[in-house]
Amino acid sequence: MSLQRFINQALSPWMSQEGPDSDIVLSSRVRLARNLKDIVFPTLASGDDLEQVVELMKESIVNRSFNPNLGQFELIKMMDLEPIDKRVLVEKHLISPHLADDAEQGAVILSENEEVSIMVNEEDHVRIQCLFPGLQLSQALQVANAIDDWIEERVDFAFDEKRGYLTSCPTNVGTGLRASAMVHLPALILTNQMNKIIPAINQLGLVVRGIYGEGSQAQGNIFQISNQITLGMSEEDIVKDLESVVAQVIAQERSARDMLVRSSSIQLEDKVWRSYGTLANSRIIPSTEASRCLSDVRLGIDLGFIQNVSRSILSELMILTQPGFLQRFAGKRLAPEERDVRRATLIRERLKLEKDSMGE
């Protein structure tokens, strides 16, 4: 399979789009946790209980019309997937590592454009997730709430008048809402400001995590900023507070970029082009080095140092160079050393495709 065809088939359609503040905010995500009334929650449920949940969700969603823009929904059971395929879904942020690794009777229901992902039998019976490019948390919440209402026409969710929606983990009780923005913050790292910003964000009831959420590390200067409070506030207020904080982080990142350009433009431009040269010429490159260089190149594109390379290349290559995608493209399992070689080859070929498409 050619690289271009693989890219077209592998990436979610929304990934190639840009949204508000896309120079810094790569994506917005809203997730609603729900459980079905009168069925034991997944942490204690029997196999029969879990299978019942899958069948109920299949009847409630698949082959039903919701929104033409989303297309049809498809249910995929985890037990029917190879480990590499599960890994690919994690790398695309369509399912959680927990669903991939620990939920044998779990499933995911995907919209045709992969903007909506509904995890079944993860930590909760149902987790509705909506992904949008750029800073579009309110829009993602609107779609998630509409799907929530649509599903609730067919099933009853576990709900308490005082506590709100009931979930397996107490930290999700109430709205069941987790909203997050994935942000690219290279200038705040280069100017050593992140160590001050993270504690300030935490004091506001928000949390800063790595690229795959809880327990993951930041890669390529990419972080997730998300809410921690789910009880005692409305969904709209939670999202509004998060949007406000993210807007401040965006302003600080832009200010830091301006300062770097004014104070050390030639050094920054040299750093960017050295990273581009590494990506364009390396024959072996580990994931950490690739992530760092991709972050530098994305910054160079945003600042105008690098012309005729699309901004979406960072988001695209950060996903395509992950272990699952590399093995999917290779059509076989790869040892870590083999992945480093394949990663370098894929990046070189992708940059060449970009040049060819620009007529260079």
UniProtKB/TrEMBL annotation:
Appears to be allosterically activated by the binding of pArg-containing polypeptides to the pArg-binding pocket localized in the C-terminal domain of McsB. Coiled coil: none annotated. Its EC number is 2.7.14.1. Residues 24-256 form the Phosphagen kinase C-terminal domain. Keywords: Allosteric enzyme, ATP-binding, Kinase, Nucleotide-binding, Transferase. ATP binds at residues 27-31, 93, 127, 178-182, 209-214. It catalyses: L-arginyl-[protein] + ATP = N(omega)-phospho-L-arginyl-[protein] + ADP + H(+). Catalyzes the specific phosphorylation of arginine residues in a large number of proteins. Is part of the bacterial stress response system. Protein arginine phosphorylation has a physiologically important role and is involved in the regulation of many critical cellular processes, such as protein homeostasis, motility, competence, and stringent and stress responses, by regulating gene expression and protein activity. NCBIfam families: PRK01059.1-4 (NF002194), PRK01059.1-5 (NF002195). This is Protein-arginine kinase. It comes from Schinkia azotoformans LMG 9581.
